[in-house]
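quick one
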Amino acid sequence: MMTLVLAAMMMAQAPDWILVNGNIYTVNPRQPKAQALAVRGDRLVAVGSNEQVRALAGPNTRVVDAGGRTVLPGLIDAHVHMLGLGESLASLDLREVASPEAAAELVRREAARRQPGEWIQGRSWDQNKWPGKEFPTHAPLTAAAPNNPVYLTRVDGHAGWVNRKAMELAGITASTADPSGGRLIRDSAGQPTGVLIDRAQGLVGSKIPPLTPQQLKEALERAARECARLGLTGVHDAGAGMNVITAYKELIEEKRFPLRTYAMIGGAGGTLDEYLKRGPEIGYGGGRLTVRSIKMMVDGALGSRGAALLEPYSDEPGNRGLIMLSAGEFERVCDRALDRGFQVNTHAIGDRANRLVLDVYEAALLARKEFLRNHRFRIEHAQILASEDIPRLARLGVIASMQATHATSDMPWAEARVGPTRVKGAYAWQSVLKSGARLANGSDFPVESPNPLWGLYAAITRQDHKGNPPNGWFPDQRLSREEALRSFTLDAAYAAFEENEKGSLEVGKLADFVMLSRDVMTLPPADILKTEVLRTVLGGETVYEKR
Ligand SMILES: [Zn+2]
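structure w/ zinc ion:
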């Protein structure tokens, strides 16, 4: 009898499946490497050697042989825009097209699949890659899609290329004036040719109907599947409205969402007020969605010189960038957030913006000593920090949420913007870590690629994909592989109060992990870019497998 009960208990406790022969990096400092792990339900029930884990297997336990492949905790991107990714995945990618005619051919094929009148959108064309390097005209697009409005944005987002149908819907004619801050490209007769510069893009952009709730869900699902394919098991969505949060919940209920989302509430409006009233929402749908943070924004970006600097731009004397939020309004949000148990995550790029955020956080936190320990307020980007402000992060317990690929995208021009002294505090990951602050990594996709392996590569090399500059851009600020991996796993989890649930492979934590084709922790950095995700496991369930 006793034996039977024991056997029954053993059966009930046997793992659902085990993974053996793995080259497992756990990100658990007490047990950095392992060969095998065991999964029951959505949790890890053992992490250890092949022998230890095989011994736990029952008659119904499935065995997956990793064949020596590398396994990492599921990667977490701490700053993303899910809807943006979902929309960009559904639009035509024109990055590689070699001529306006080649772009028009893609549009023609798309039009054949669409109803007349449906919008066709695309992105990332660049006339500098085409013969003649001239702006295109509407003519090839008009011929390709006479009955569908077409709107294609340039690679930098500062120009739109449209067809005749789109111009008709927008009422654009020879008599249309250039809007302030924008320009219509015209032919010698004054006729708009179909390229709209900067603010003029709004003439057409404003005519594109907003996504229906159905399309919104499809976009988020598409983005989530892309994340799973790339080895991401978690994302922090930097600015979600109630429509997006509702769509997340429906997708989770419908089992169409192979990802965990930590949604930051978009800074203003009804969604924020409603959540401040009802309080945080933690671990919805078996830990697939948490809403307990607020996204704020205090300045612009460095590329367009909108980032707020303490001293003028080195390449534009007189311009110190823009602060977009009053300190008073910002303080009120921080106060309400602390009162209601919400984290505040604030976009700050320039050193003036970062100082303002630290000042406001400090004032709000000092007024409430009991919250100082576990508020986990964050600065999103923290791109340019005055050297005297860096130690304040650790002192106040503020997390730096930075994006490795921003550094490698911006490095060709960043020093021109800020000069040789301030650039030392730019994308200063190692200075931030050495100061004792916590660093969460991410991509800001779709601004950068969502591929977290590209992020790891950028973090450890500070080089572009061709290996330039040779030793890396300000190589002292590179992260070690261990630091980089931690920033995309355990510390990204910490930045969401989730380090006890995920971010490392330990007994009791969620069974979120990825299997890779190569060992990214030892191979030459350039080979990280050639590494493939073979399998993504979320809560014990394989949500992506390479075929
Ligand atoms: Zn962002």
